[in-house]
Specification:
globular; 18% strand; alpha/beta; 9 strands; 8-stranded parallel beta barrel
Length: 246
């Protein structure tokens, strides 16, 4: 799909930048309701990750392992929702959220990017469950769906949501299926390649994960929006808006 069609289909707040794993900091743990509320309170689009629990519930966490964000060993795919809720909490003291929790908190106030995390060939189950959950969404322009696993995005082809294929610089072979989805979400190292820069002129591009002003300036000429952390959202918005006006 051409760039302008994607821009016309999504909520314009996406073009102000996307807070990676919520607007987290030393006080609010990533992918937690406090980090998401911080994004909502600041009018910022935010990104988060979903995994499939043992009892087929959609759990919000970046890693399969709960260790890094809770301090306690546990693999989401090997635990039930009840076990997670009863035995784990994030480092900021809040509970580990489900997709339902995040949707209930947000109430479609700000746009969201949902990253599907697959494990052990569960891509069909997790994608189909997400499709059911998304039936609750009234404004499809406020949701983008991304994944490193192209199979999940292909299953969402007729969903009406804009899809973004995540591509890591270390696994660039995925580049060959770039035209099977509406947009790309690239490791910032890709923008050293001339073929990527040419492709970006006509296709919607996001880049991850921008953590410094210097990194933002490097990719700004080539992308339509950025996924960022540790930066002031107002600064990111200002620089993106200045770029997009030219």
């Amino acid at each position: 799909m051409k760039k302008q069609k994607v821009i016309d289909a999504i909520n314009p707040v996406f073009l102000d930048g996307v807070a990676h794993r919520g607007l987290h900091n030393s006080e609010y743990t990533e992918n937690g309701l406090k980090a998401f509320k911080n994004a909502i309170d600041n009018g910022v689009a935010f990104e988060f990750d979903i995994h499939l629990s043992k009892d087929k519930k959609l759990i919000v966490c970046h890693d399969s392992s709960l260790k890094r964000t809770s301090g306690k060993d546990g693999i989401i795919e090997e635990l039930t929702l009840e076990e997670i809720k009863n035995n784990y909490q994030l480092l900021d003291g809040s509970s580990i959220p489900t997709l339902d929790d995040v949707m209930e908190l947000n109430q479609e106030r700000v746009p969201m990017v949902i990253e599907i995390k697959t494990k052990d060939k569960n891509y069909k189950e997790i994608t189909d469950l997400l499709k059911e959950e998304l039936k609750k969404i009234k404004d499809k322009s406020k949701i983008m769906i991304i994944s490193f696993d192209a199979r999940t995005l292909w299953r969402l082809k007729k969903s009406g949501y804009m899809r973004g294929l995540l591509i890591s610089y270390r696994k660039d072979y995925v580049w060959h299926v770039r035209n099977t989805v509406e947009s790309l979400d690239l490791d910032r190292q890709f923008f050293k390649r001339k073929n990527v820069i040419r492709y970006a002129k006509k296709h919607f591009m996001n880049v991850w994960t921008i953590e410094t002003k210097e990194a933002l300036e490097e990719v700004l000429p080539y992308v339509d929006t950025v996924t960022y952390q540790y930066l002031d959202p107002l600064y990111v918005k200002q620089r993106l808006n200045e770029k997009n006006l030219h």
